[in-house]
Design brief:
Strand content: 5-15%
Oligomer: single chain
Distance between the termini: 87 Å
Helix content: 25-40%
Number of strands: 6
Largest sheet: 6 strands, parallel
Strand order of the largest sheet: 3-2-4-5-1-6
Structural class: alpha/beta
């Protein structure tokens, strides 16, 4: 019955078969009202925007430049200066550009003055509370869906400091956060994990250690490697703080 109606309309001139001969005319919009097409180079994102990371102080500009020019960078400074965020942002940028094949996140599992006991679950679940700041920075640069996918594929790796000995991190962007809670021996072990075509950024505040007095090795390590030309040591100050203005005011008296 349908074929008979088409032939009748064709004889009457109501059905234009030439209109459907070109391949371009057979394509219909999947999402009417939008300009998205499967043929576009960049597919539809599940996050509708990407934040542009720009330095908000001279210290942050120096840190971003140092990460671009050096394979080993130590970012030291008070809380709120953007050390961790800028390091993670540069890591995501390197991963998306193909400069590295993975991002390795490492942070000491040290409580801030109180013990919360044993945590249930696998290694990733036990470390999740300590790595929450890194996850927040990653989720700000990537959509949560993409972040979960990259972690499942191993492109974003969680590496506990206790299991780093003996490894060689090639073609990776390594972020060591809260390094002030690492001892001298731990930091020496971490810095010597650097492999070919890799970048390592060590962040921390020597004045905010949760270890016993004189156990933190960050300040001592930074003083020794600062003499090397190929390693950048960026020291951020209170004027580089980008959190609430009260943070900078409190750090002058606390």
């Amino acid at each position: 019955m349908g074929k008979r109606n088409v032939k009748r309309r064709q004889r009457a001139g109501e059905f234009n078969t030439a209109h459907y001969q070109a391949e371009e005319d057979k394509v219909r919009a999947l999402f009417p009202g939008t300009s998205w097409s499967p043929d576009e180079k960049e597919p539809m994102r599940d996050q509708r925007f990407i934040k542009n990371v720009k330095p908000r102080s001279d210290g942050q500009a120096a840190l971003m430049k140092a990460i671009d020019e050096h394979n080993m960078v130590m970012a030291l400074g008070p809380a709120g200066t953007g050390k961790t965020y800028l390091a993670v942002a540069k890591g995501v940028e390197a991963l998306e550009s193909g400069s590295v094949s993975r991002i390795v996140l490492s942070r000491p599992a040290v409580e801030a003055g109180e013990s919360i006991g044993f945590l249930p679950g696998a290694m990733e679940e036990k470390l999740a509370p300590y790595l929450r700041p890194l996850y927040d920075a990653l989720a700000d640069r990537l959509s949560p869906k993409k972040l979960k996918l990259l972690m499942a594929e191993g492109l974003i790796e969680i590496a506990p400091i206790g299991y780093m000995r003996g490894r060689t991190l090639n073609n990776a962007f390594v972020v060591v956060d809260e390094a002030q809670n690492c001892t001298y021996t731990q930091l020496k072990m971490l810095l010597t994990r650097l492999g070919w075509n890799s970048t390592m950024v060590v962040t921390g505040d020597p004045a905010q250690s949760d270890l016993l007095p004189e156990m933190s090795g960050l300040a001592q390590i930074a003083e020794k490697v600062e003499a090397l030309d190929d390693i950048a040591v960026c020291r951020l100050e209170a004027k580089d703080i980008v959190r609430h203005p009260l943070v900078a005011s409190m750090l002058t008296v606390l």
